[in-house]
UniProtKB/TrEMBL annotation:
<feature type="active site" description="Nucleophile">
    <location>
        <position position="380"/>
    </location>
</feature>
<dbReference type="Pfam" id="PF01029">
    <property type="entry name" value="NusB"/>
</dbReference>
<dbReference type="InterPro" id="IPR001678">
    <property type="entry name" value="MeTrfase_RsmB-F_NOP2_dom"/>
</dbReference>
<comment type="similarity">
    <text>Belongs to the class I-like SAM-binding methyltransferase superfamily. RsmB/NOP family.</text>
</comment>
<dbReference type="GO" id="GO:0008649">
    <property type="term" value="F:rRNA methyltransferase activity"/>
</dbReference>
<dbReference type="Pfam" id="PF01189">
    <property type="entry name" value="Methyltr_RsmB-F"/>
</dbReference>
<dbReference type="InterPro" id="IPR023267">
    <property type="entry name" value="RCMT"/>
</dbReference>
<dbReference type="GO" id="GO:0006355">
    <property type="term" value="P:regulation of DNA-templated transcription"/>
</dbReference>
<keyword id="KW-0808">Transferase</keyword>
<keyword id="KW-0949">S-adenosyl-L-methionine</keyword>
<feature type="domain" description="SAM-dependent MTase RsmB/NOP-type">
    <location>
        <begin position="167"/>
        <end position="441"/>
    </location>
</feature>
<protein>
    <recommendedName>
        <fullName>16S rRNA (cytosine(967)-C(5))-methyltransferase</fullName>
        <ecNumber>2.1.1.176</ecNumber>
    </recommendedName>
</protein>
<dbReference type="InterPro" id="IPR006027">
    <property type="entry name" value="NusB_RsmB_TIM44"/>
</dbReference>
<dbReference type="InterPro" id="IPR029063">
    <property type="entry name" value="SAM-dependent_MTases_sf"/>
</dbReference>
<dbReference type="InterPro" id="IPR004573">
    <property type="entry name" value="rRNA_ssu_MeTfrase_B"/>
</dbReference>
<dbReference type="InterPro" id="IPR049560">
    <property type="entry name" value="MeTrfase_RsmB-F_NOP2_cat"/>
</dbReference>
<dbReference type="Pfam" id="PF22458">
    <property type="entry name" value="RsmF-B_ferredox"/>
</dbReference>
Length: 442
């Protein structure tokens, strides 16, 4: 079954939900062991992401035919993959989905499992899809957009009903591929033309002057990528390095740096021999990723790495910095479009637990920042617990720090409030993001 895209989709989904694994990693692991064609690989990937993004809808469609039946986990997921194909993939004949799914059940279990799948899918085919409730209640929106109710509640409480609906309407749409141009090796215009000549439909980012956006395509497998002319990076995370207000001689600490996208962006502002970047990550194997990115992008003479828990940095480092970036561990709620499984794994208590970790890291940075130095705090989420509340608590505990307006491009003016920058996933079709800047006073 290793070359059957539907069977592999079920395997990937089982690993994701049983092990709380990242879908992109499980898809990649399974594809690397298969000999499927590009078309089958795309089908398998489509099914995996589609089921994750529409899981509550698929369960709702299956309810009348399963009632209270207790199915094996994989079998339930197999039925969801079939309903997804029948509801969302118009070019695939229903009979092909039905026959393939029945055969997978028989091969993986027995004739009885195959009979059950066949009966359920024939019933669904006969009656058609149920109409989804169209009300704007938290319950109905949770089911319609496959987002847990507690998250819909949280979004409504913090962003209001209108913004919440906008966010939910966009998180299940396919994300774009965005790249940050290495302007020390090429220009945005030149790289755009080069990639367009290769068949990529790339356009300038609306929010970053060094970004290009492409709806689809494998932008990792190009000579230009290998030569370090660009790196894959979401547009909203390209806003972080400019917020540091870097100078050619800046001495920068990137406290939570892996895999190094923001680190190399920081390095692009710095002159070798004049300034430097120290990049830390708690996991030693991830510091290798930072070094690999540094070498590819041409900044290995500026960036040095260390496997250090950022919460203990002040005990390990014996120097100070005029710039510090704390791109803190967070819930990743701003990444729901690219990592849709996160919505099912997060729990309400996670937000406050992460807030404690974020404050511990910021506290560890206090004595490492020079007087009049700047520290940027950023996350890839947009809930208040991990953002504004962290800023408020940090300032209350450290009277020698003050909040200053985030340095940003004019395109982001409407995303700045009280000096802090917050991007919702629906604002520019990017990741949700937050940035705040502190200055250490005397």
């Amino acid at each position: 079954m290793k070359n059957n895209p539907r069977a592999l989709a079920v395997e990937a989904l089982t690993r994701v939900f049983q092990n709380k694994a990242y879908s992109n990693i499980e898809i990649s692991n399974l594809l690397n062991k298969s000999d499927m064609s590009d078309a089958d690989s795309r089908l398998m990937t489509n099914i995996v992401y589609g089921v994750i993004q529409h899981k509550y809808v698929l369960e709702y469609q299956l309810e009348p035919y399963l009632k209270d039946k207790k199915l094996d986990f994989w079998l339930d997921l197999l039925l969801q993959t079939a309903i997804y194909q029948m509801c969302y993939l118009d070019k695939i004949p229903a009979h092909a989905v039905l026959n393939e799914s029945t055969e997978i059940a028989k091969q993986r279990a027995n004739q009885g499992a195959g009979n059950l799948v066949n009966a359920v899918l024939r019933n669904f085919q006969r009656h058609g899809a149920r109409t989804m409730p169209g009300k704007d209640s938290v319950y109905d929106m949770s089911r319609l957009y496959s987002v847990p109710r507690w998250l819909v509640d949280l979004f409504e409480e913090q962003q209001g009903a209108k913004k919440t609906k906008e966010i939910l309407q966009t998180v299940n749409q396919p994300s774009n591929v965005s790249i940050r141009v290495n302007t020390n090796k090429t220009t945005v215009a030149d790289l755009q033309k080069t990639l367009q000549d290769k068949g990529f439909d790339v356009k300038p980012s609306k929010i970053s002057s060094v970004g290009l956006v492409c709806e689809s395509g494998n932008l990792v497998n190009t000579d230009e990528f290998r030569a370090g002319l660009y790196t894959i990076q979401d547009e909203s995370s390209m806003l972080v390095a400019p917020a540091l207000d870097l100078q050619p001689n800046s001495r920068v600490l990137d406290a939570c740096a892996a895999p190094g996208g923001k680190t190399t962006h920081i390095a692009s502002y710095i002159k070798a021999g004049a300034g430097e970047v120290t990049a830390l990550d708690i996991h030693k194997h991830k510091t290798k990723l930072i070094r690999e990115n540094s070498e590819r992008m041409g900044y290995s003479d500026i960036i040095s790495t260390g496997a250090v828990d950022a919460r203990k940095a002040k005990k390990v480092l014996n120097t100070t910095f005029d710039r510090i970036l704390v791109d803190a561990p967070c819930s990743g709620l701003g990444l729901l479009r690219r990592k849709p499984e996160l919505r099912y794994f997060r729990q309400p208590e996670d937000l406050m637990n992460l807030q404690r970790v974020q404050l511990q890291i910021l506290d560890s940075m206090v004595d490492l920042l020079e007087v009049n130095g700047k520290m940027v705090f950023s996350t890839c989420t947009f809930d208040d617990e991990e953002n504004e509340q962290v800023v408020e608590k940090f300032l209350a505990a450290h009277k020698n720090f003050e909040l200053v307006p985030v340095k940003h491009e004019s395109a982001m003016d409407k995303s700045v409030k009280d000096g802090m920058l917050k991007v919702l996933p629906s604002d520019y079709f990017t990741d949700g993001f937050f940035i705040a800047t502190f200055v250490r006073k005397n």
